[in-house]
Amino acid sequence: MRAAAEDRMLVSSLVEGSALFPQILAMMRSPEPARAAHVEVAPARRVEMESPMIRDPLCLVRASADALADVEIVFDDLRAYSRRVDGMDGRADAARAFVTARPPGCGLRDKHAFVAYRHGVPIGLLDIIGDHPRPGTAFIGLLAVRESAHGAGLGRALYARTEAIMRWRLKARRARLAVVEANPVGGFWQAMGFGPTGEVKPYEGEAVRSRAVLMEKMLSMEEGLLV
Ligand SMILES: CC(C)(COP(=O)(O)OP(=O)(O)OC[C@H]1O[C@@H](n2cnc3c(N)ncnc32)[C@H](O)[C@@H]1OP(=O)(O)O)[C@@H](O)C(=O)NCCC(=O)NCCS
Q: Is the CB of 179 within 6 Å of ligand 1?
């Protein structure tokens, strides 16, 4: 019931013509014309609760319209990132678009946007598109940690949650993402097990022209069982 109500809120919050990263989303367009029907059931709102059993108490909460203030708090602390990928400190519609933007042809059920909290404080953002650009592949649209908290292991912790969602909730066997060359985070993704696919696509931010390097990681069942 609660998930259905949230989905309605999400639908009512859709902003026509607004997209957080239209350039990334454009790159995410599938070369394949056909998409398999997505069989994901509506996910529960809270993915992981803080627990004394968890050494790193990250808590992911599905980002809906009522979380916009917390999404904005994180974007306010991502200015260097915004300057690299957009050439500006931040975009006015960033928070709302983070909650709603998805590639053409991608349904609401394939959009999985979360705010990450640590000790109740919003510290990061995560956006995954399920079964994109093809069934079995999960596309990480954004994984970001507040700049004031960089270098403390939170990116790795957030990625661990991301991979768990992709493997077990979305049943993905491959993870994919695009790194804008003007944003030097390829080393982070390599540390997370990703490698370049060899695909490079032109990228245009608001006031930045660069290239986007596609990276992928296979999510084998055996490795997942060892985590
Ligand atoms: C990428 C990002 C999530 C890393 O977060 P973080 O909390 O600083 O990363 P961590 O402290 O968990 O680092 C994990 C590992 O990645 C490495 N790493 C982190 N950022 C790196 C970078 N920019 N280049 C190379 N390696 C990096 C760390 O050295 C660390 O390696 P180790 O565990 O072997 O010591 C963060 O820089 C960020 O949010 N950037 C802005 C948003 C962004 O660019 N997201 C990616 C879009 S494709």
A: yes
